[in-house]
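**User:** Once you have settled down, spend some time on the protein underneath, comparing sequence with structure tokens, and judge whether sequence predicts the tokens.
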Amino acid sequence: MNLATIIESHPADGVALIHNDTSIPYGELRDHVDALRGGFLGLGAEPGDRVAVAAVNHPAVVETLLAALGAGLVAVPLNPTSPAPEMARELRLVGARIVVAGPGTTSAVAAALAVGGDRVERVVTVDDFEGADLGAHVEVHTWESLLGAVPVPVVDVEPSEPAVLVHTSGTAGSPRAAILTHGNLAANIDQMQAVEAIARRSDDVTYGVLPLFHIFGLNVVLLPALAVGATVVLVERFDPAAALDAIVTHRVTALTGPPALWATVAAVPELPPDTFATVRLAVSGAAKLPVEVAEAISERFGLEVREGYGLTEASPVVSQAVGTDAPRGSIGRPLPGVQVRLVDEAGDDVLVGDVGEVHVRGPNVFPGYWEDPEATAMVLDADGWLHTGDLALVDDDGHLFIVDRLKDLVIVSGFNVVPAEVEEILVEHPSVADAGVVGVPDPRTGEALVAHVVPESGAEIDPAEIISFVGRHLARYKCPTEVRTVSEIPRGLGGKVMRRELA
């Protein structure tokens, strides 16, 4: 098998992608992907090599992912806005030999390589070089040169072979690269397709604003649509006015996003009641959707936004509420083929109505973190159950409700943030002696980060400068929105920050 074959059987004139109002039919997409497979192999890539791609939602990302998979390589999507130190860490972690720099990201890739990326041998630039110095040891190739390569056939791989490495701050704490195999991703697509209410159709038009470096954008929006021959409207960033215009213009039928997207939509004034008349599937995920947001959209537009639940390590969808009688606030029921247990501290199943940790098992569950057996052992037990660190309960009708988290994790606009990672950066600031970070509710992003800092003796804390400092080391969504000065950080006997006390 090979997941890249999902685009092979669709009509050549069917529209696969729309980007900046330019349509790319499946025939053209296949031609590009066929050539790119040959191009990557011509650069000396060998089966199992990691190919990173740093780009906003752009056809080049889709083509890179499919070509890498089809050639037996492992695709590594990266956040193109990550600061250089963070991108460099991710490149080192996976040992990428080739990096594709999407439009406008060559300078960002160059900055990352300058910080650390010694294993990178070749950079492929989708647009001009922007005058960036990529280092004497790096060969630079153009996107056009790869598209001019001789096409090669898709390589047959075992379902257990890695397809993508997705960086996540998930169940095991600090950021790691989750291995998602060809079989994992294909299984989750099949599991979603087995539910009539959420199954993608060939005539669907999906609004693709979720970033493709996030598993939600990759295997909930993009790949299921391509698997059935549907159309994906690729959008680089969310702008409410542009989004609403595109939904109407392209007659979007499937709209999926985090609560922040839905909260923004609900707050836009003076929209016609039929704005979402073509949308048949409206899903929120990656964080808890406030009930009042779902109610507001239903009352204004007659559109029912239902929730799903998942995580990177499950490829990602575990459960969903679309088409069920689950009440608002519920994440519905598990997908077919996905087993879910709610487990107490002794490892026993909890009773109906009691809270337990969500454990998940199925062919969509990942095999582990890249070259990190210790972190893998923390979340995967001997029987194949994934310990999610999320706490939930089930009602008498079998509906699941997420109620809390066991792990130190804050979800900002659908992205996982481990507070300890932010704290490590904060204490590197010369004015900060100690730090503790907590999440607080935020109407726009679901949660936001608040940093509590203890100043060094005689130092003055400038909140804006502290936030800027973090932003030079971590992605924007990991930056605190507020900095508070405190005299001490409460810690337990083991030195761990007592976040509940801070909050």
Summary: The mean pLDDT is 93.
